[in-house]
Amino acid sequence: MSRRVAPHAPPVALSIAGSDSGGGAGIQADIKTMEAHDVFATSAITAVTAQNTQGVAGSHVLPIGEIDAQIEAVTSDFDVGAIKTGMLATSEVVGLVAEKLADYDGPTVIDPVMVAATGDRLLEPEAEAAYEALIGQATLVTPNADEARVLTGINPEDAADARDVGEQLVETGAEAALVKGGHLPTEDVKDVLVTGEGATTFEHARVDTEATHGSGCTLASAIAARLARGEALEGAVEGALDFMERAVRYSLDVGQGPGAVHHLAELRDRAEREPTAEDVEEIVDRFVEEGVSALVPEVGMNVVGATPSAESVSETAAVEGRITRTMTGISPNGGVRFGASSHVARFLLSARELDSDLRYAVSCRFDDEVEGALGALDAPVVEAGDGGFGDEVDGETPAAVIERAETGREATLRIVAPDPETLIGRTLAVHDALD
């Protein structure tokens, strides 16, 4: 017996860029990022590089005829929804790509790759001048501060300078320019999108990391993928920047260098939503079974679980309506859903700023009796106010945080853990230690 085929027809995007043997940037990053956006990734490789998280050891540019043949093979067969360019290496390759894009009527994202994050040069000096024609074909050009200086002669120091860069690139012929703020000496990262209608600044907190290998490729590919899916330019840029922020914060600890951005962080997070909700249900069921009513606050208990790279309350699962005491024990008032908790969820998210491995939390009653039982915990207990989490104690992440009673607010103990088993064990340890 044969089964009926059920094909999927995703949008298609083309990356014209170099190969990164280290897997964090270039074609490899583009393919991972596009597929994470449910876009079928095709490629035309311009150069083969020998590189890793520490630097570029060598580079070989493919013959121009081979690059041309790859582009032709893709565009003659696939309905390409967007094209993204990366490392083009030589003026001859830049010229070929500009010629090809002149015959293409879809959106194009030009990432003017000139220098790798490690500082290694990826573009011949004479090829820099050839970029003007390519930029003239761009729906969007995405330079960082160093590339902006080469392309415009402006050395951006702040968002105002970035706007000047963008305006000059639009005057050159690009429909829009996104001047990336990662290299700007500003406290927060400010990315400036300039179009013929004005400028928009996207601001987010700077992530304290050097693991940014592949960040430019990943951002440009995310924008191209979203354009291939039919999103408007500003929405595609905003969504890609959010995707990029998560990819940088939850970077990949691979190689001997700083590491690489996590191209699949958001996809992995979506895949973990159901297992996270199931974990919360498991914890709740165990608490009901064990009858931990002595730890349930007057306002009720809640259990919260965060996906691996949760950044918002909507990415945390909790009991809807909390867990309350009954005549026979405890019972949840509702089921588990995402976004059901606000206060405990925000606390867990703040705890993850200290230790991103923390994924589960429970809110418990706190009084002198409970305080006397905290010695049963396997890690330090700290005090914090205003929903904060506190700091490490002798290099160890706290197991719980005490919030003393305030006017109109009940005292609370919040226990945290990286996995359901540890959260259950810590909570039962305190419960069993009560007089």
UniProtKB/TrEMBL annotation:
Its EC number is 2.7.1.49, 2.7.4.7. Residues 20-262 form the Pyridoxamine kinase/Phosphomethylpyrimidine kinase domain. GO terms for biological process: thiamine biosynthetic process. Pfam families: Phos_pyr_kin, ThiN. Residues 279-425 form the Thiamine-phosphate synthase ThiN domain. Gene3D superfamilies: 3.40.1190.20, Class II aldolase/adducin N-terminal domain. Transmembrane segments: none annotated. GO terms for molecular function: ATP binding; hydroxymethylpyrimidine kinase activity; phosphomethylpyrimidine kinase activity. This is Bifunctional hydroxymethylpyrimidine kinase/phosphomethylpyrimidine kinase. Keywords: ATP-binding, Kinase, Nucleotide-binding, Transferase.
